[in-house]
Amino acid sequence: MRWIFNRPLKSTIMRLFIPMILVFVPITGTVSYILASQQLKINAETSLNDTLSQTRDFMNDRLTAVLAEMAVLDGSTELRSLFYRANRSDFSMTPQDYLTVGRNIDKVYANLYSIIDSILVYYRNGAISMYRRDSLHTDFSYDMSPYPGYSGGNTAQMRWLIPASNRLENDGGNTASLYKWIAGGDGKPDGMLLLQLKEQFFLEMLSTPKISASGYMLLASPDGTVSAKAASAGDARVDDEALRSMLMAQTEASGKLEMTSRTGMRIVVLYETIAINNWRLAVVYPQAEIYEKVNYIKYVNLVVTAAVVIAVALLARVLAKLIARPVTRLTRQVNSIEEGHLDVQIIESDNYEIGILSKGIKDMMERIKHLLSQVEYEQEQKRISEFAALQAQIHPHFLYNTLYSIKQLCELGETAEASRMISALSHYFRISISRGDELIPVETELEHIRQYLTIQQMRYGDSIRYEMDVAPEMLSVPIVKLTLQPLVENAIYHGIKKVRRPGFIHISGRMEGELCRIRIEDNGFGMDQRQLDRLNLALAAGEEPQEEPPVGFGVRNVHRRLQLHYGSSFGLAYDSTEGQGTTVTVTFPLSGGKE
């Protein structure tokens, strides 16, 4: 867990809360969707079952009323007496008989006007014949043979009459009929009471409930089916005859079936039984459509989940920012202090804990500044003293060598040359003193070397030559005095004097951006790679090499003085090839460095 907490506070909060949000919110949304979808499926089927039951009950009530009216018509004493008299050979309808039949028919027609399409009273091949639809007709001839039970029986039955030619008036429609046979003298059907129901009555009941986009209701009987075709879509249609056979074959009064539509859709059929005649009322619908709301809930849930994740993530980011801002600000201030920016202004936070920390750091900074001022003063005094000591050490070192040369000249009787060397030495020391300044222009430092080389040429004659090629813009740049002379001296004593060929020293200087580089090259003895690496390593570490090559006290002294004045990134760097010569590069900044 350290990889989580070993980060900024804001990042830690985001890394902790965002994964939790990304995990728990989708899980919660998924669980909610599963529960909601299951409940919606149950509710959808329950709603369809309720619709089916209500339609069944309403249709059963209306058909029961039709059956009751048939019973009233069948039980009419007037009609029974008329049927009895019609069995006589001399029977003929009187005006009173027509009024009797018409009165009984009109009464039933008036009571069931919204359901009844037509009524027929027919007996003895038309001896008694009266038909009522929108008007009253007498002497109506009708063929009863297509009706089931014609060969015998007197029970009232409900049947679908298909095809339409079985209707009293062949107008191309379908209807349902309730009929009762009237037995003749031989006990066989010799007439009938017929009530035909309006097709529109069934269509309105079947089309009123809203099932689904392609769903519909269907009414099935042993003879045929009727459905609200206008409300159904073609893709959900099934084979009505196959469905009728399945429904009539069911032993349960209600249930659920599954089929495949003509286009291959999965179709669900819920059915109920109408008690009055055992017809089956069914709801037919594609399962995919009834679950559309479930899919809608799924998409809504995905959108809401995504919105919640984004909103909570943004909120977490805002909270993390509010919590982490003072900590981050304080951390940046501490980092700036750690980088050495002690002048950072510590802003005290309104937050209680952060405020205490800010105040503590602010007080601590004040104390550190005070202590650092003391340490800096002491170190600067120490640096000045050390620099002065190092610089003072150069004078005796060079003075010893030069005086030794003058002594030799005097011993040889070269008094004029000794005088010139003393004059050059005095000029050399005048430049060295430089009124006590640590820094002198490069031009003055080069003049200092000329005086030194003048002395050396007097000592060694034509065996030493030199050349100076320093960029004019560098001549006014300040440099720590007595920097180049020990390096030239080192080139002579440890390079040129070890070879038998004439010695040559080339001094060049160039500016590279904010840096100044002066190179002193000689054609002396040089060093192998191992000696060169040890020398550069010793200079970089600020230590004296323990083995050869003997670079001399002057080289180490110059390097330490440059670093004391300019910093550890400046100083000397050597490059050498054994038998060919050595190059030392002095690097110092364009600015004068420390005051």
UniProtKB/TrEMBL annotation:
Residue intervals passing through the bilayer: 12-36
Task: Look up keyword Transmembrane and say if it applies.
Answer: yes
**Ranges where the Histidine kinase domain occurs:** 417-592
UniProt-listed Enzyme Commission number(s):
2.7.13.3
Question: Which compartments does it reside in?
Answer: Cell membrane
In which broad location class does this protein mainly occur, judging by the first location in its UniProt entry? membrane
Q: Does the keyword Transferase apply?
A: yes
State a single Gene Ontology molecular function.
phosphorelay sensor kinase activity
**Per its UniProt record, what SMART domains does this chain match?**
HAMP, HATPase_c
Specify the species: Paenibacillus riograndensis SBR5
| Classification via PANTHER family | SENSOR HISTIDINE KINASE YPDA
Pfam families xref list: HAMP, HATPase_c, His_kinase
HAMP domain sequence ranges = 321-373
State the name under which the record lists this protein.
histidine kinase
**A GO cellular-component term linked to this record:** plasma membrane
- Enzyme type, top EC level: transferase
What are the protein's UniProt keywords?
ATP-binding, Cell membrane, Kinase, Membrane, Nucleotide-binding, Phosphoprotein, Transferase, Transmembrane, Transmembrane helix, Two-component regulatory system
* Catalysis performed (reactions): ATP + protein L-histidine = ADP + protein N-phospho-L-histidine
Membrane topology recorded in Swiss-Prot or TrEMBL: Multi-pass membrane protein
InterPro entries in alphabetical order: Bact_2-comp_sensor_kinase, HAMP_dom, HATPase_C_sf, HATPase_dom, His_kinase_dom, Sig_transdc_His_kin_internal
